[in-house]
Amino acid sequence: LLGAEAEVAASASASSLTVSSVATGEFLPPEALKEMKANLIKFLPFKYLAKELTSQAEILKKVLRDNQEHFPVVFSQASHCLELVCGVEVKEVDPREHIYIMVPNLGLTCDVMLSSGQSMPKAGLLVLILSLIMQNGDRAPEEKVWGALSRLGVCVGSVHCVFGEPRTLLTHVWVQEGYLEYRQVPYSYPARYEFLWGPRAYAETSKREVMAFLLRIKERASRAFPPLSAEAAREEDEAA
């Protein structure tokens, strides 16, 4: 989900498809709804990086082409995707005028350094890495980290459309910013390396907050997809 949604967020062009206004009840093709969602996923991070509020009126005018009846579902799905991929939460600050602000999840400020809106926020990936470290006894072997990222379409040596080259991001950028530690496993030969939480990660968030975030995402996913049948669940368990 992370890799797929990130690809959509980065590759969609706000002008690539013009969706005309649709009367209430008129059928709108799934491709058009998907395009509106992708356009909104692209629009919201730029508002976040510019530290600007947005509103339902602005979104309808600039992104959804006045398709007001589709706003609730498109806005909800795009907000959830933005939280998962970018680590940014969309909050309504004025229910009467429907004005929204975007804030970093878990207090992480790693995206503050991004300038001029030239890059998508990446805090969502950082939360994933921090959780992987927690799940591996507070020190995650780098091969496990690269393996987990590759299953999400974020591969070492390949430039990802949102996250760039992951080795550079994890072992240089986030290490220099203090979010991660990347060090050699003591007495390992040939040398093996592992990731740990950095001091800035401990200062800005906590393990309890990261776990609560992951549980919230898991709960949303379980609501979004129908439960497996007993037979399918049994096959999945056997495969695992």
Automatic annotation (TrEMBL):
UniProt-listed PROSITE patterns = MAGE (PS50838)
Q: Which Gene3D superfamilies match?
A: MAGE homology domain, winged helix WH1 motif, MAGE homology domain, winged helix WH2 motif
Name all MAGE domain ranges: 33-232
Q: Which domain of life is it from?
A: Eukaryota
PANTHER family xrefs? MAGE DOMAIN-CONTAINING PROTEIN, MELANOMA-ASSOCIATED ANTIGEN MAGE ANTIGEN
What this protein is called in its record is: MAGE domain-containing protein
**What is the organism field in this record?**
Rangifer tarandus platyrhynchus
From the broadest rank down, the organism's phylogenetic lineage runs:
Eukaryota, Metazoa, Chordata, Craniata, Vertebrata
